[in-house]
Amino acid sequence: MRLLLFCLLFVVTFAQVRAQPKPTARQLAWQQLETTAFLHFTVNTFTDKEWGDGTESPAIFNPTKLDARQWIKALKDGGFKMAILTAKHHDGFCLWPSKLTEHSVKNSPYKGGKGDVVREVAEACREYGLKFGVYLSPWDRHEPRYGTADYNDYYKGQLRELLTNYGRIDEVWFDGAKGENAKNMSYDFAGYWAMVRKLQPQAVMFSDAGPDIRWVGNESGNAGETCWSTIDTTGLAPGKADAAYLNRGDANGPVWIPAETDVSIRPGWFYHATEDSKVRTPANLVKLYYESVGRNSLLLLNIPPNREGLLAESDVASIRNFRRILNETFRKNLVVKTSRLTDGKLSTFVDVEAGKPLEIQLLGEQLIDRIAIQENIENGQQIINGQVEYWDGRTWQPLKTFTTVGYKRLIRFPEVRTAKLRLLIKQAKGPVQLAEVGAYKAATGEN
Ligand code: FUL
């Protein structure tokens, strides 16, 4: 009997543990960066292509004014916390002098073949206090070994060079993209990932399906209106994605693999002068922030250097103003200060029961049009849906309904004047730990 009870207890406990996936320390740190940047730069910048075919001569890579400090300073001013560089894109050209191929900067006119763009960016990141990440394309259209088992050794050798020569790396991007007519290739992803864990244990790894962070399922900058940080990876792999599933996640997913929203400030991922007039405006970038960070994701914005090796002034101005607007909107939380809900920490929270409304006092009567809610995701993600109401002086008026919250839910609505709000969590998977609540008046530049 005792044994039976013990077994039952074990099964129940095991089921609960399984049902409550939580982030690792590296995932938690990554999520809180909120906005990170992509730098797409290679021979494509000089051929005006998006996907090089691998036949490009290193002789065309000649950024005469390259200044990685200009890139990283601009990203810092834009509030980006990490820069991820395309060390090698699909064309196979390496931005560092890899010992494993001739197809690199060492055979280009850049700094007379003595340049190393990976090093310059890594050092600039250190100087300005940004984290640094690398993109190393598995699909390689130049390397002749691609398609054979030997290519896995080549790829691992390159990964090792990047992970051991440039200091700390905080993200490694494994792109699943591959052309339709490309050779078959059986990648040893398990081997690649094990190497990253061993050499840079703090780094998060991105692919369509994790292991640490997942693709959001589109390149237009929007996480799902409902977005769970949990998924079931069965049937998923790099290059094998169910876009709609990745976009919204899965309330019942057994693993914690949050969504990263990657999008470019221009129509293409690489710089093309013809797209100079199509740079996203600050207001558009702010909209993307609401639709990514504000939906429990992270915004990975690509700002591609031009042929001179500089970020274009238009792009620099756009990200600077994007940050100015966000700072202005979120400068002052109009909720009455409490030790737990307004201290900016996830780990200090209030337990909230589904079905029991929580009143939130504002600092007197205020004009507001934005609300921010955060769960203590250290303990997982619980909220399924809820609503907010405001007090119009006589009764409670409906303001907005919402679904998942997770790390952050940002709610936008036409401005109302009110002195208090009421938050109701209607359904939750488990006990809700409400970490933060904020009410704001958006900066004029937002719309
Ligand atoms: C895609 C690639 O094919 C694009 O060129 C770009 O690098 C984007 C971030 O990922 O899969």
From TrEMBL:
Name of the protein this chain belongs to: alpha-L-fucosidase
Signal peptide: 1-19
Entry function: Alpha-L-fucosidase is responsible for hydrolyzing the alpha-1,6-linked fucose joined to the reducing-end N-acetylglucosamine of the carbohydrate moieties of glycoproteins.
Family: Belongs to the glycosyl hydrolase 29 family.
Record keywords: Glycosidase, Hydrolase, Signal
Coiled-coil annotated residue ranges, if any: none
Keyword Repressor in record: no
Gene3D superfamilies recorded: Galactose-binding domain-like (2.60.120.260), Glycosidases (3.20.20.80)
Pfam family, one: Alpha_L_fucos
Residue ranges constituting the Glycoside hydrolase family 29 N-terminal domain according to the UniProt record: 55-321
Broad enzyme group: hydrolase
The EC number(s) this enzyme carries: 3.2.1.51
